[in-house]
Amino acid sequence: MADGTDQKSSNQMWGGRFASGPSAIMEEINASIGFDKKLYAQDIRGSMAHATMLAEKGIISQEDKEKIVHGLNTILSEIEAGTFEFSRKLEDIHMNIEARLATLIGTAAGRLHTARSRNDQVALDFRLWVKEELQKTEGMLTALIAAFLDRAEENADTVMPGFTHLQTAQPVTFGHHCMAYVEMFGRDRARVRHAIEHLDESPIGAAALAGTGYPIDRHMTAKALGFREPTRNSIDTVSDRDFALEFLSIASICATHLSRLAEEIVIWSTPQFGFIRLSDAFSTGSSIMPQKKNPDAAELVRAKTGRINGSLVALLTVMKGLPLAYSKDMQEDKEQVFDAAESLELAIAAMTGMIRDLEVRKDRMRAAAGSGYSTATDLADWLVREAGLPFRDAHHVTGNAVALAEKKGCDLADLSLEDLQAIHPAITSGVFDVLSVEASVASRTSFGGTAPSEVKKQIAWWRGRN
Ligand code: ARG
């Protein structure tokens, strides 16, 4: 709750027309400094570029610009040293910095806000922050992809059951399964790269919403701040938060991928599946059941998806129906993005660690691959290829063989030739070549298929793409 009511003094930045200050509740609901202080470095960088441009264009003197830049550098060190005093009365990071600048350099500080508004200032700061976060995410996804490529390489011919409906479907290789995640996270990384390109326009100079009459040079500030070009419409510029929504959409899709992987890790590490063992570094014990090793990190990654998706929905809802141009509603953009970014970073890092460390239990995967009649499709394909049956008939004959194996409590490969010939006389001993899971996997050589030779090609393709 607010720290008492102070209605005596009006805001020193905008209080000219106000006789008294805000109520404590007003101050509390209005202030964003509690979270937007995170933008201090971007705010200072933006102000330096703006002041430099103002001086370059003769709008402020070189002398004032020198003072401003010097003061801003002092403030940067103060914030980084933890000695800067943030004040809620000064609302946000922009006014906290400007007020301190005034204390440090006097009247020259008042010239910094020429041809600028907090509306384009916050759009700039936040865009710079999101751009950096996207660049960080790109690097983290590359590390996750690299971890998967290594595991895929080691397991290009490790046979495991492939599933649909989480029921054994056909044998695949663990390398192939790993490469499915490489595809997913590769798409996430492509989305990140596209979003960086998309947001690469500088908002500064849009001013409050209408642009400005001062002879500013927006191309100069855009270049100084590392943007491709300035934005084209000043009204859109101060009301646009697409870059934040795009970040959250990408984060949500990526978190959804991570949650699917997390779910598989949870399932695979159960004693019933036993496909993998998680390292001690990425699991926890139970305080009551000494035998337990829990996949907490995977479970939390799965759960972070809820937060991240929630942030996307929250910001979409904030932006929905907002009239142009800036409305204070938009101040609610930052916490959602900051929280989602922190959650996503943690989730990707935890997953990268788990994938790097996990022990693959090839024997367990191999044993499970052979159960559940996983080579039934191979038998049907053999009947088509070698005995000339139409696929539908072959499917039916195979169904009979599965029913017999089920009755006998054995695998398809354990049925005798006599048993099989009783089901269909065209079957010969050659059929046993395709009933093993290794033969099944090796035969799937279609582009993108599970054959070790294909998986190795996919790995090589991705290795060449970082
Ligand atoms: N703290 C504000 C925000 O985050 C800065 C912009 C304020 N602009 C204004 N016209 N009150 O959106």
TrEMBL record:
Gene expressing this chain = argH
Listed A to Z, the keywords are: Amino-acid biosynthesis, Arginine biosynthesis, Cytoplasm, Lyase
Its lineage opens with: Bacteria, Pseudomonadati, Pseudomonadota, Alphaproteobacteria, Hyphomicrobiales
Q: Name one Pfam family in it.
A: Lyase_1
Q: Does the keyword rRNA-binding apply?
A: no
Primary subcellular site in the record, as a coarse category: cytoplasm
Report the subcellular localization: Cytoplasm
Q: Which residues form the Argininosuccinate lyase C-terminal domain?
A: 373-442
Answer yes or no on keyword Amino-acid biosynthesis. Answer: yes
Query: What GO annotations for molecular function exist for this entry?
Result: argininosuccinate lyase activity
Q: Which GO terms describe its biological process?
A: L-arginine biosynthetic process via ornithine
The record's annotation in CDD domains points to:
Argininosuccinate_lyase
Signal peptide region:
none
**According to the UniProt entry, what is the EC number of this protein?**
4.3.2.1
User: Which reactions are catalysed by this chain?
Assistant: 2-(N(omega)-L-arginino)succinate = fumarate + L-arginine
> Which segments constitute the Fumarate lyase N-terminal domain?
16-310
Q: Which family does it belong to?
A: Belongs to the lyase 1 family. Argininosuccinate lyase subfamily.
GO CC annotation, single: cytosol
Protein name per Swiss-Prot or TrEMBL: Argininosuccinate lyase
Q: What class of enzyme is it?
A: lyase
| Domain of life of the source | Bacteria
**Known pathway:** Amino-acid biosynthesis; L-arginine biosynthesis; L-arginine from L-ornithine and carbamoyl phosphate: step 3/3
